[in-house]
Write a structure and sequence with these properties.
309 residues; alpha+beta; 23% helix; 8 helices; 21 strands; 2 domains; Glucose Permease (Domain IIA); disordered N terminus
Amino acid sequence: MKKIIIINILMLNTNIFPIIYEIKNLDNNDKSFIKFKNEIKENNSLVRELKNNFSYPKLKEVKKLTVASYNVKKNDTIFSIAEKLGINVDTIISFNEINSEDSIKEGDTILIPNMDGIIIFPEKKIYLKSLSEIYKINEEILFYINNIQRDFIYPKEEIFIPLVRMSDEEKSYFLSKVFIYPLKTNKIVSSLYGLRKDPFTRRIRFHGGVDIATPSGTNVMATADGQVIYADWAPDYGILIVIKHKYGYTSWYGHLSKILVKKGEIVKQGQIIGLSGNTGRTTGPHLHFEIRRFNTRKNPFEVLDFSHP
């Protein structure tokens, strides 16, 4: 089954980010590739000029934000795709919400914008004037490129900021896996992320995390620094802890037997936060572990650092 690696909200708002080009090959035999590569180069040059010396006539020369789709081929990497298109790798990572180099595989579809920049999802309602001051770019550029008709962005609503790069810390979430395995021992995974046969209904269902077989009472560790945003009983999960991390990431620890932290508590990576158990919808003792970004479930194996003791 082909996997589409795109931010969920992009699929809902294609009027904001319309997919115009379909690139089949990253070479000069593909007319869409040539045209889109040139469009990226021209837009980047124009936006740089506008940042230094804004004018409305020059703004009208910029092509509004549009998107090309590309099916990943064998031996493609995020870096090789970016290099061939003449676009910054940060742009592809951000626009597709890619977790790591392991996140893309042959046959996956990625989306590429027609200029460099990043997607952001503000936590709170924010005015474009404020974004203009934060990112040092004229707010008229943001209005025009994103085709926005109002002067603010709703919480969690996407907006594209042209020519901006990811911070070193944010990029480290992609370049080096910052989440550690939540158990020191018992690394036997009894159920993987993805489609599986439900142990109760025997029907095929999506499993949004991994199940790690371990005896009840095993110490469960925080996979990364963060803040506890949930520590209580939850349907199906049983006793559940959820930790909020940076850049939209959360980690979920289900079927616990005991909670050792409180909601609102700041925790450190490796800190014991609870004990594994057999609560909720389960057929035996294990830890159900999830990683989400902007509440979209991710494959934990793509972000976990298994070299950590």
